[in-house]
Design a protein that fits this description.
With 162 residues, the protein is α+β, with helices and mostly antiparallel strands. 30% of the residues lie in helices and 22% in strands. A four-stranded mixed β-sheet has the order 4-2-3-5. A three-stranded antiparallel β-sheet has the order 1-7-6.
Length: 162
């Protein structure tokens, strides 16, 4: 799948907002320049209160798919994580696989992309310390916007995705 086969950023974002409204989830919206890395996001984050995050789309050596959601300053050891959760060795999932399973292009990975994982192929790992921050900030399926939600609303959303 290529990025041209995905719904437009506006369509993806609006589908997410419809789902959030249906779940009774409120959010604060921020528009900004597109960011692709944690480093690029640092400047943008200065104007947005709450916890900031990074999201890693991983594939284990047996083909399992994982979304790891953690604080933006967390230094993750992929080998240690695989041992901790009992998963085979990790590598980063390809952009094509990301678009196929989570329906977002590279740079827009977010737990909200679980809305597009209709087959529930992706397992989620959440950083416990990230969940102590209020609010928590994520891309709304595009990397030129950020939305802030509460920890409880994030967990409600993830649960609604199966």
């Amino acid at each position: 799948m290529s990025e041209t086969n995905l719904p437009s950023p506006e369509q993806r974002e609006e589908a997410l907002y419809e789902r959030l409204r249906a779940l009774g989830i409120t959010w604060t919206h921020y528009a900004h320049v597109p960011v692709f890395t944690v480093e690029e996001a640092l400047q943008v984050n200065l104007s947005q209160p709450g916890g900031h995050t990074k999201n890693l789309f991983l594939k284990d050596k047996k083909g399992g798919l994982w979304l790891v959601v953690l604080r933006d300053d967390f230094k993750l050891d992929l080998n240690a994580l695989s041992k901790q959760i009992g998963a085979p060795r990790f590598s980063f999932g390809s952009g094509e696989l990301l678009m196929e399973t989570l329906g977002v292009p590279p740079g827009s990975v977010t737990p909200f992309a679980l809305i597009n994982d209709k087959e529930q192929r992706v397992r989620v790992v959440l950083d416990a310390e990230m969940l102590t921050q209020e609010p928590i900030n994520y891309h709304p399926l595009r990397n030129d916007r950020t939305i802030s939600v509460s920890k409880d609303d994030l967990l409600k959303f993830i649960a609604s995705c199966g």
